[in-house]
């Protein structure tokens, strides 16, 4: 087991694995410590994402399921947006994570599973490595740079005082079902108190007659368990969507947490970089973050590599990473958080009104809004298609950024 390395990465999710790939090379020793016994398991996310972004990130087309129709259901309304050319997809989460792990490994990165990081090693007020149990055996690994990609726990960053304790977060519960009756070309978003007060529910087909159905709520606004809400929804034989799934069988259960506190003040310190959910780099609109984690993880890895080879791992040197991700994504994250603040207070009647506006929306422009595309031309296009919804709501929010 290593005792001294150049870069140690805490977490083998998309952020940590992407950081590892881009940190490797030039003779550097880079390792990843993953607490689970398998990369990509257990699953903590529904896998909903965007085809254009995944293509740009080099994710193989075989690892996601394309979607042509997006249905939005409120308690009293429903509307479906159709896409001749699909823009939305549902990932094979385990396959994508394993793919990222192989890419990192091919660059010389060594990944340890069943490796539970306990605490940072601190010397003279600066992080110098991590204490970790690997298969239950305690070790100390010293490193020039630690990258915290530990997810919503922010294990290292929180203990180093870089990221505050999350006082708001999204929590989701999801089943993966086998059903031969659901349209594999259609995702459904369920809005309203029956399935997800202060959040949303989803039905995401993922191929081979498999469908992911889940509920996500915002704590502490809502104290109800998303699992109880989901079970009650599936037990309601009078519900149109439940009937469309029948008969079904539960194959897997997934659950996850995403931070919901907005953009953090900083993501670096001397010898420390924070990335992914650990740095709250997640969309507040849909709670998705994998595509951001991969891209920003690459920024983190490249910055760490440059800092180590340049023999300067100071906060000042690592701020290059902080500047890069903020330039590309800070407005997107702020926008998503503002929308989240607005929507979490919606009642059933509010969702009914919003869904009733959808027939006036351009499908592609609306997809741009959901994925956080803040190009002025796209926002104007969306606003022109539905002035009632866009000009009074989303355009107003964007002006605040």
Description of the molecule:
- The strands form three sheets. Strands 1, 2, 8, 9, 10, 11, 17 and 18 form an eight-stranded mixed beta sheet that branches. The chain has a seven-stranded mixed beta sheet with strand order 6-5-13-14-15-12-16.
- It is 35% helix and 30% strand.
- The protein has 401 residues and is of the alpha/beta class.
- It is built from twelve helices and 18 strands.
- The termini are far apart.
Notable features of this structure?
401 residues, alpha/beta, 8-stranded mixed sheet, 7-stranded mixed sheet, 12 helices, globular
Summarize the main sheet: 8 strands, mixed
- Poorly predicted residue ranges: 397-401
Radius of gyration: 21 Å
Global structural class: alpha/beta
Shape by Cα distribution:
globular
Straight-line N-to-C gap:
47 Å
For the residues shown, what is the average pLDDT?
A: 91
SSE layout and pairings?
Elements: E1 4-10, H1 14-23, E2 30-33, E3 48-50, H2 51-56, E4 64-67, E5 69-73, E6 78-82, E7 88-91, H3 93-106, E8 110-112, E9 115-123, E10 126-134, E11 137-148, H4 155-159, E12 169-179, E13 186-192, E14 196-207, E15 210-219, H5 226-235, H6 240-245, E16 248-259, E17 268-269, E18 272-274, H7 290-309, H8 315-343, H9 348-357, H10 363-370, H11 376-385, H12 387-399
Parallel strand pairs: 1-2, 1-11, 2-8, 5-13, 11-18
Antiparallel strand pairs: 3-7, 4-7, 5-6, 9-10, 10-11, 12-15, 12-16, 13-14, 14-15, 17-18
Helix pairs in contact: 1-3, 1-7, 7-8, 10-11, 11-12
């Amino acid at each position: 087991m290593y005792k001294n390395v150049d870069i140690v990465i805490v977490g083998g999710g998309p952020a940590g694995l992407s950081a590892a790939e881009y940190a490797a090379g030039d003779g550097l020793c880079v390792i990843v410590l993953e607490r689970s016994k398998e990369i990509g398991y257990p699953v903590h996310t529904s896998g909903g994402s965007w085809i254009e972004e995944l293509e740009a990130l080099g994710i193989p087309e075989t690892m996601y399921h394309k979607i042509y129709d997006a249905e939005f259901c409120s308690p009293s309304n429903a509307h479906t947006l159709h896409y001749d050319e699909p823009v939305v997809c549902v990932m094979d989460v385990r396959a994508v994570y394993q793919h990222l792990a192989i890419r990192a490994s091919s660059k010389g990165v060594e990944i340890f599973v069943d490796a539970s990081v306990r605490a940072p090693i601190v010397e003279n007020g600066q992080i110098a490595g991590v204490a970790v149990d690997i298969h239950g055996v305690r070790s100390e690994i010293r490193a020039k740079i630690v990258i915290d990609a530990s997810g919503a726990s922010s294990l290292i960053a929180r203990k180093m005082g870089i990221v505050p304790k999350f006082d708001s977060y999204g929590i989701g519960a999801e089943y993966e079902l086998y059903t031969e009756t659901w349209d594999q070309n259609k995702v459904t978003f369920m809005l309203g108190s029956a399935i997800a007060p202060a959040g949303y529910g989803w039905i995401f087909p993922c191929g081979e007659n498999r469908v992911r159905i889940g509920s996500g709520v915002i704590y502490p606004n809502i104290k109800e368990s998303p699992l109880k809400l989901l079970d009650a929804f599936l037990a309601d034989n009078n519900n149109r969507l439940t009937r469309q799934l029948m008969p079904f069988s539960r194959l897997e259960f997934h659950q996850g947490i995403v931070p919901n506190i907005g953009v953090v003040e900083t993501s670096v310190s001397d010898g420390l970089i924070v990335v992914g959910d650990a740095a709250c780099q997640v969309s507040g609109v849909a709670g998705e973050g994998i595509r951001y984690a991969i891209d920003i993880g690459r920024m983190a890895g490249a910055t760490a590599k440059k800092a180590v080879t340049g023999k300067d791992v100071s906060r000042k040197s690592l701020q290059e990473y902080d500047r890069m991700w903020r330039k590309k994504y800070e407005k997107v994250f702020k926008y998503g958080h503002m929308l989240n603040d607005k929507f979490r207070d919606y009642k059933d009647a509010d969702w009914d009104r919003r869904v009733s506006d959808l027939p006036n929306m351009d499908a592609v422009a609306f997809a741009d809004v959901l994925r956080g595309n803040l190009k002025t031309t796209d926002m104007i296009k969306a606003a022109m298609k539905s002035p009632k919804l866009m000009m009074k709501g989303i355009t107003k929010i964007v002006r605040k950024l």
